[in-house]
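Class, carefully examine what follows:
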Amino acid sequence: MVATPIGNLEDITVRALRVLKEVDLIAAEDTRHSRILLSTYGIRTPLISLHEHNERERSALIVSKIENGMSVAYVSDAGTPCVSDPGYHLVAAVLENGIHVVPVPGPSAVAA
């Protein structure tokens, strides 16, 4: 679960950029929106969509990919996945299958 900037793309963390470059696949709430962020930083990791309308079905596919050795990151349009964004069903499916979920936090708008 990788937090992305709310507003200014320069607010992304170095850790988030590293993770997005290193994973085998990125699941995104809106691939069109996420491509802008990824293009800005030259990240060419393959994308698939995972949004409120396909999350249950896509979660099973992502669990299968992880069980087959792939590393997968999930990003919502802006902010932290699962906080007013999709991601709950994905996290639940991953945890049900004994897979560890790693949160990658971003800058906090609340603290700012």
In short: The chain has a mean pLDDT of 91. Residues 9-96 form a domain with the Cobalt-precorrin-4 Transmethylase; domain 1 fold (CATH 3.40.1010.10).
